[in-house]
Design goal:
Blueprint: H1 2-28, H2 64-71, E1 75-82, E2 86-88, H3 97-103, E3 112-114, E4 119-127, E5 133-136, H4 138-141, E6 146-150, E7 156-158, E8 160-165, E9 170-174, E10 196-201, E11 209-220, E12 236-239, E13 251-253, E14 259-267, E15 276-281, H5 282-295, E16 305-309, H6 312-318, E17 326-331, H7 336-339, E18 347-351, E19 354-355, H8 359-367, E20 374-381, E21 384-391, E22 410-412, E23 415-419, H9 422-428, E24 434-437, E25 454-458, E26 461-462, H10 466-476, E27 482-487, E28 493-498
Antiparallel strand pairs: 1-4, 1-6, 2-3, 4-5, 5-9, 6-7, 8-9, 10-11, 10-13, 11-12, 12-15, 13-14, 14-15, 16-17, 17-18, 18-19, 18-20, 20-21, 22-23, 23-24, 24-25, 25-26, 25-27, 27-28
Length: 502
Amino acid sequence: MQAKQMMLGLLGSAILGGGVAVGGYKLLEPTNSNAPQVVAADPNVRYTSELRNSDYVVPEGLNFVAAASSVTPAVVHVMTEYAPKMRSNAGSQRMDPLLRQFFGEDFDQYHQSPQAGPQMGSGSGVIIAANGYIVTNNHVIDKADKIEVVLDDKRKYKAELVGTDPTTDLALLKVQADNLPFVRYGNSDNVKVGEWVLAIGNPFNLNSTVTAGIISAKGRNIGILQREDRMGLESFLQTDAVVNRGNSGGALINLNGDLVGINSAIASQSGNFEGYSFAVPSSIVSKVVDDLLKYKVVQRALLGVQIREVDARLASEKKLKNLNGVYVEELSENSAAAAAGLEKGDVITEINGAKVNTSSQLQEQVARYRPGDKIKVAFLRGNNERTATTTLRNATGTTDVVRAEVAKAVKYEGATLEPVTSQELSKLGIEGGAKIKGIRDSNFRQTGIADGFIITRIDKNKVVKPQDVQRYLEIAKNGDGALVEGIYPDGRKAYYPIGQAE
């Protein structure tokens, strides 16, 4: 019996020892990461793909959702098409140095060969009226043969160009539709540096893109609208909202959903956003749009002064009282400033109560008025503060309304001068001109000019319409004649000297 019990005891010990050995081996065995793992359910664990409702309330003044949702339907995608243009011929660099010296770099524009296929462009626009008026940038639609807009809901319309203003880089379009969503103007004068704004547009053809930023500065002049006539107007709102190619013409809004600017430009070395963007303030937009609707051309009011911003060096040199205002260097004859009694050396500090410390601020304040409007000018003469009321004038020194001159055919010296069609302008890459016909029976028959020639310049004067040819050649009759520059429909450029008319 004892032997039997001993055998059972040994067997049990052996089994127990084997179990311990196997268990110890398994503990030391490397884990197989590919083996299926069984994880106990944890009621506190949730997968990231599971939806979760949030009742978090955005603090008042930081809610971008309401503004974005109300304005996005009123921001459109502007799509443009351009007929094949003429492409420059590199060989022209070696041609006619004398003519190049006379006409400058413009000489190269006409030694060209045609470019294959239409070109496409795109940008953004903002619906400002339910009956289909849309504001955008002039550079978005400039010289386009065809303009279409695509709404946020994918409806597409052909757009008519109502008018443009290159001096502010704005344009007005019209589509045949009603009951469209639109954006109301906000007052850009009340926008403060540091205030949140949203930029809405179509960068890189990505429709209805919304970005956020703050107003970084106001009254910025970045030198992109410089013109020979010095009429370019820059007083941009600067923001750090992301704006890229395709955003041009889109909306800059405040958190109330009001339009405070039209996005126009970016500060960039690469062509893409690098930190700052610029928008035309709504105070200028609304005035330009109103002028284009009423007159088809912007009524630009001028004070008639050449100004310089006051800095420490100028203040010391001229013994100025402080660094406020803008310094009057020259006055134009028959100008509003001269009529108000301003003099060279005065420092303008306010226009209608609005302080002006930079040239762009002065231009913006004056540009919101029309010729014939009265403004109050505050200025310093020495240490004396003065005010004067003056009536603003146009570029010709009058208060008359400026009407857009319609290009029409005219008869001159027996020949017919016709306007150039938009298709020809686009194809040849020119901004204007006058096509001449009937050479054989005219006083031009000895010049070598052939029918169909488009006159684009007379001496150094650009020809935009037929009336310009008549005007400049009449002036040339009192001198030694003129050199006529132009282009034929096949892209050949030519120059013809025209002597005094007999």
